[in-house]
Design a protein that fits this description.
alpha+beta, 81 residues, flat, single chain, 3-stranded antiparallel β-sheet
Length: 81
């Protein structure tokens, strides 16, 4: 049983995982070492051909791909009663 679980977890991780290291934008290079993928807000889920393409769109300021995916209201802390 332990061997089966080890194989399952061992094979499922490398396919889409990375070291967890992201830059100040919450992004990192893709597995192909050329593309640029964002894992953390505000650009989470977006992939670009390269970091240069990402920075070009960021500097332009008009890219719909860089707009937040959802406009969630800010978190409000409830007062303790």
């Amino acid at each position: 049983m332990a061997l089966a679980l080890g194989i399952i977890f061992g094979l499922s991780g490398p396919a889409d995982s990375h070291s967890g290291i992201v830059d100040g934008y919450g992004c990192h290079r893709g597995p192909d070492k050329a593309s640029y993928h964002c894992d953390q807000a505000p650009f989470a889920g977006r992939t670009f051909k390269s970091k240069d393409d990402f920075l070009r769109e960021l500097r332009d300021g008009k890219s719909q791909r860089l707009a937040p995916k959802s406009n969630q209201p800010p978190f409000e802390k409830k007062a303790d009663e």
